[in-house]
Design brief:
The chain folds into 2 domains: 357 residues, Alkaline Phosphatase, subunit A (3-Layer(aba) Sandwich), CATH 3.40.720; 89 residues, 2-Layer Sandwich (Arylsulfatase, C-terminal domain). The protein contains 14 helices and 14 strands. A 5-stranded mixed β-sheet has the order 1-8-9-2-10. Strands 11-12-13-14 form a 4-stranded antiparallel β-sheet, with helices on one face. The protein has a 3-stranded parallel β-sheet with strand order 4-3-7, with helices on both faces. Helix content is 29%, strand content 13%.
């Protein structure tokens, strides 16, 4: 199960007292909580490409949104299908359409059966991209849109479909691997995009600007990351609706966990909960995602496996999106493809020792969905610090996340941290060299890695 735009800090178990996430909190108490989990590139398509391949953005070529993924990668779905698993994929896909905008046209929303489903050859009830949760639709094996019905909230309907899949799967001896890709709590944050019951829960809740809020836009932000004056006035309303969406998401996760219990599958099912990235909401003068700051990059990552993973386990390993696939496949006893660039950190979940990443590598290769230069950066996050460098002017940032959780003090110019800064420079250089990541401007990827029609044809190691 993975949410869209749900940051780690917005969950009750992570310390947010205003979040209403009792089911996610309960799951965390029964699972291993990877408290340092981050999204390698905190934006929708890049995250999904890394999730399904175990590769970094510069190796998938998914450098901005609205590109069409290559089909020659070894993927999570292919491993499951080859291993005779029954697969299900429900929800947002965001790896097929090769056009900016026009999301509701079937040529962009429908992912045809075959290689573009990346191995998910079983049950399919998905769409490429949309975030209007009423009057919503999905596709199965034809371009025809299937609407959930009048006044049906999409996350509720998707949960119903997954519960039905679980019930059927429980009657078979064949193992299953099921992915539920929720759209919430991604914007638009308007009242008619959230059930009234949940809107009412947060109607009078105070959700003010955070300490690191800035009333001017970050000069490195793209158009998706900038705030207009009227949007700044809406920030508290947006947060209330975001929290309302998250509360509904939590309710649906509770329903899924209950369905596993009722089907007798609780003890022998590995349950994973995560998200693609968080949301800035004005912190550091930004909205949206696609940045190395904690609000955008840090994500929940929980794994429950009764009788194998001790309830309440906490890991501080520097796990990131590329590590999710090898870690989960290893727990399942399945072969991890050699092409995977992430690490198998299953031993962290199981409470044993082993090597860990020095730091998680984060990448940005352009604006959210446009071929626009000037926003690119690379970053590292270890158990204490975040280090980042922008391509456009070589500006560096260094934050002590333990002592400065809102990342308000840039230590890069502080002579006391010269050694720390140099250490991160060296780690970053070695990691980028190993990936053949040459840190190009966004339009270079367009000109060298796509066919000019937003179809990916190569990446860093090709």
């Amino acid at each position: 199960m993975f949410a869209d735009q749900l940051g780690y800090q917005r969950c009750g178990y992570a310390g947010d007292r205003k979040a209403r996430t009792p089911n996610i909190d309960k799951l965390a108490s029964q699972a291993v909580d990877f408290q340092n989990a981050v999204s390698n590139m905190p934006v929708c398509s890049a995250y999904r490409a890394s999730l399904f391949t175990g590769k970094y953005t510069t190796s998938t070529g998914m450098v901005i949104n609205e590109l069409r993924m290559r089909t020659d990668h070894e993927t999570f779905g292919k491993v499951l299908t080859r291993s005779s698993y029954r697969t299900a994929y429900i929800g947002k896909w965001h790896l097929y359409a090769n056009q900016l905008g026009h999301h509701y046209e079937s040529k962009n929303s429908f992912v045809p059966p075959g290689p573009h489903r990346l191995g998910f050859d079983g049950y399919w009830a998905a769409y490429n991209f949309h975030h209007n949760y009423y009057s919503a639709y999905y596709h199965t094996d034809t371009p025809e849109k299937i609407f959930y019905g009048d006044n049906v909230y999409e996350p509720d309907a998707q949960t119903d479909m997954m519960i039905e899949f679980i019930r059927k799967a429980s009657k078979s001896s064949k193992p299953f691997g099921a992915f539920l890709s929720y759209g919430t709590p991604h914007d638009p944050w308007v009242k008619d995009n959230v059930p009234d019951k949940y809107v009412e829960m947060f109607r009078d809740v105070s959700l003010p600007n955070p300490p690191n809020y800035k009333d001017t836009n970050d000069k490195y932000a793209d158009n998706w990351g900038r705030l207009r004056p009227q949007q700044r006035k809406m920030l508290q309303t947006w947060r209330r609706l975001y929290y309302a969406m998250t509360a509904n998401l939590d309710w649906n996760i509770g329903r899924l966990l209950n369905a596993l219990e009722q089907a007798g599958l609780r003890d022998n099912t590995i349950v994973v909960f995560t998200s693609d990235h968080g949301e800035m909401f004005g912190a550091h003068g930004r909205r949206a995602k696609n940045i190395f700051y904690e609000e955008a990059a840090r994500i929940p990552f929980l794994i429950r496996w009764p009788k194998n993973i001790r309830a309440g386990t906490v890991s501080d390993a520097c796990i990131s999106t590329v590590d999710f696939m090898p870690t989960i496949l290893s727990l399942m006893g399945l072969q991890v493809p050699k092409s995977v660039e992430g690490m198998d950190l299953s031993y962290c979940a199981l409470g044993s020792g082993g090597s860990e990443p020095q730091a998680a590598l984060l990448q940005n290769t352009g604006a959210c969905a446009a071929w626009e230069d000037g926003h690119e950066w690379r970053a590292l996050r270890d158990k204490q610090y975040t280090y980042a460098v922008y391509r456009v002017d070589k500006s560096e940032l260094l934050f002590d996340n333990k002592n400065d959780p809102y990342q308000m003090k840039n230590l890069a110019g502080n002579a006391q941290y010269k050694g720390t800064l140099e250490r991160f420079r060296q780690i970053l250089a070695r990691k980028m060299k190993s990936l053949n990541d040459t840190f190009e401007k966004c339009t270079w990827y367009r000109d060298n890695w796509t066919d000019g029609n937003r179809n990916i044809i190569r990446a860093a190691k090709d």
